[in-house]
Specification:
Elements lengths: L1 H9 L4 E3 L20 E2 L10 E2 L5 H11 L2 H10 L4 E4 L2 E4 L4 H14 L3 E3 L4 E7 L3 E6 L2 E5 L2 E3 L14 H8 L4 E7 L3 E3 L4 H4 L3 E10 L2 E12 L3 E3 L1 H7 L9 E6 L6 H14 L15 H10 L13 H12 L1 E8 L7 E6 L16 E3 L7 E2 L4 H15 L3 H4 L2
Parallel strand pairs: 1-6, 10-19
Antiparallel strand pairs: 2-5, 3-20, 4-5, 7-8, 8-9, 11-18, 12-15, 12-17, 13-14, 13-16, 14-15, 16-17
């Protein structure tokens, strides 16, 4: 939709062929229905919030956001009638409704007289020398001089993302980095997960490749029947491809206390609450179901009286609270992923999102092998690549 707005502003006659029965359907699910459309940290240099399977991917993200980033995105949507509210670094429409973002784009397309055809199944796409691109669909044949493919990925297929754009790209000679689920809950090994399913807690989560920690992040973790979820888990999943050996996570349930401080706390509470049951030792400090699970995993009888716990058992318990190690067995798959990693290698696109293989063929959005963490980073890549592709890189002359 962003690409269509910018292409129309450039003076092109634009037709949008939409697979779904309505346009922009996926926007409604972003930001828990509120649409976190960008992130104020993108006002400065791009740091570690982007990833890619392609060596060129990070540089690509940096380049496109330098050209159309946080400030440009706010200016663009403000011109479409949106106002904003900020929560920390996260930027939302002032209405707190994702539908407002969709409506702003939809109204712009209507006002620019962009032709939007929904429920279209593209059967084949070819380029002929004298006729440009020929697109055959289940609703007739379309032709154009310039073609932008913004077909998304395989993530969240229930929203219409079927990965069909990859086949079109390959038919033109583009190489596709194998799509994999990203921003996705993780399946983990263990028979204790059902006992803590639904528990949410603040943690520091560290991703380990064997015994080597390669990434860590603090945030809210959610235990599930199959493993772990929550934003901190989603962001860890974005780095899972970096693990070459066995992938593990270490969970620190009390990040603000050192292991020694935690041991002292446990010993002090042992003296103060000596006649309680062990399972009640940390009532008011750690979620009860979570603490009972950690006791069981530590091999400590939770029904004994507190004063019977030994110093060695306290050290073992502290280790489980601070360094709970879980083996990752996989992800919950495309059905549960918010985005994909993989897609078209950015090195095959020029600075204006045009194919280096086929002139006048452009790509934008999630079909490109570039993705970000939770927090508006992926939508920012959509606005950035869409604006650049739609305008042929003539951003300043057209809009800004």
């Amino acid at each position: 939709m962003a690409a269509a707005v910018f292409a129309s502003k450039r003076g092109d006659e634009v037709t949008v062929l939409e697979h779904n029965d309505r346009i922009g359907k996926k926007i409604l699910q972003t930001g828990n229905g509120r649409c976190n459309l960008t992130n104020s940290t993108l006002e400065g240099p791009v740091h570690g919030n982007f990833s890619s399977l392609s060596p060129s991917g990070i540089r690509f993200c940096d380049d496109v956001i330098k050209r159309f980033g946080y400030k440009e995105t706010l200016r663009f949507f403000k011109s479409l009638g949106l106002e904003f509210r900020q929560r920390g670094d996260l930027v939302y429409p002032k209405s707190d409704q994702a539908s407002s973002v969709l409506d702003a784009l939809r109204f712009a397309l209507e006002e620019l007289k962009v032709s939007v055809k929904t429920g279209i199944e593209v059967r084949s796409v070819k380029k002929e020398k004298d006729k440009g691109f020929i697109i055959k669909t289940d609703d007739g044949t379309f032709s154009c001089d310039r073609l932008i493919i913004a077909a998304g990925s395989k993530a969240a297929p229930q929203t219409g993302s079927d990965g069909s754009g990859y086949a079109i790209a390959e038919s033109f000679g583009h190489r596709i980095e194998r799509p994999m689920p990203a921003l996705v809950p993780l399946k983990c090994k263990g028979d204790f997960f059902k006992s803590v399913s639904g528990v949410r807690c603040p943690v520091k989560l560290s991703l380990s490749d064997g015994d080597k920690v390669i990434y860590n992040e603090s945030g809210e973790l959610q235990y599930t029947q199959y493993g772990i979820s929550g934003i901190v888990t989603m962001n860890i999943s974005n780095r899972l491809h970096l693990c070459k050996k066995n992938a593990f996570v270490f969970i620190d349930h009390m990040e603000n206390d050192s292991k020694d401080e935690l041991c002292s706390m446990l010993m002090e509470r042992r003296e103060r609450f000596r006649n309680r049951s062990v399972k009640d030792l940390m009532t008011g400090v750690i979620n009860k179901k979570l603490f009972e699970m950690l006791l069981k995993e530590s091999g400590i009888d939770m029904n004994r009286e507190v004063f019977l716990i030994s110093d060695e058992e306290i050290k073992t318990l502290a280790s489980h609270i601070k360094e709970f190690k879980i083996k990752i067995e996989g992800t919950m798959g495309f059905d549960h992923s918010q985005i994909c990693m993989g897609g078209i290698d950015p090195v095959e696109l020029d600075e204006n999102m045009q194919s280096r293989i086929v002139p006048s063929l452009y790509f934008c959005g999630e079909i490109i092998d570039a993705h970000g963490d939770c927090g508006g980073y992926n939508l920012q890549l959509c606005w950035s690549t869409g604006a650049i592709a739609g305008s042929c890189g003539e951003l300043e002359d057209i809009f800004l």
